[in-house]
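Dear support,

I submitted the protein below through the web form. The confirmation email said the job was done, but the results page showed an empty box. After a refresh the structure appeared. I'm attaching both so you can tell me whether what I see now is the final result or a partial one.
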Amino acid sequence: MLIVNKNTVEQKPPQSQLLKWVGNKQRIAAQIIQRFPVTYNTFYEPFLGSGAIMATLCPQKGIGTDIYSPLIELWKALKEDPEKLIDWYRERIDRVKVSDKVTVYNQIRESFNQYNNPADFIFLIRVCYGGVIRFRKADGWMSTPCGVHNPITTETFRKRVYEWHCRLRHIEFQQCDYKVIFDQARKGDLVYCDPPYPNSQNILYGAHNFKLVELFDCIESARKKGVFVALSLNGFSKSGNYLKALSTTGDLFKEDISLPLGNSMLKRFHMEGLSLDNERIVKDRLFLTY
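What the results page shows now:
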């Protein structure tokens, strides 16, 4: 049994992000983990994304999954062959040194849209605008433009890769739908869910057909089996408006905790880098079944 003692063990997030990713929870990962049960068996994260929670927790027995194949191929490379992951990034970032960044970015994005390969994807994640991996609904092609920032160097990327490799060395990575994980989880296991933003998933994550109500059904079934479930959902804004109306019925969730997340990354994307001083401050809602 995996034992996490919240009173004696302090989970600290990695020094830097490995992947730029919309909705990244790295800034509040420790706060989320503090709300996890003191003891549990296997830790599951079926919407792995940036891996911030998994890398902060560093479980001795964990399974991280996502439906998007290029993303899982990245995580597998990190665990099994970190030098290969570094080479993928080096080969592409070296092209930026001798050519225009936007031109190189567009060429690599075109390659990725044809082949959906993880080697192109790692470059695009690091260089795209705001970490917003946006896809066209019509054909599923990635459409995010090049970011204005300077990409990190290969050496900086190498340091991040090996820190994350060490943290995630015990994790099994699988490409599958989240419903598979809920079927697999057993009494005493912990499932942490950070699903796509319900109000914006039509342009993100390849426009997968994600329905929040179906996730709630899975959580209800898991709770009845004795599985612990923690669910992060995009919550309130500074203006007092809901980013997405959320409602739960019955006793599905025992706690509803509000955690400040900062400026909305999606809002920054739509404003194209303009000042966010007077814009929405997003708070995540953390729902617990225990």
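Response: this is the final, complete result; the empty box was a page-load delay. The CA atoms of residues 60 and 272 lie 41 Å apart.
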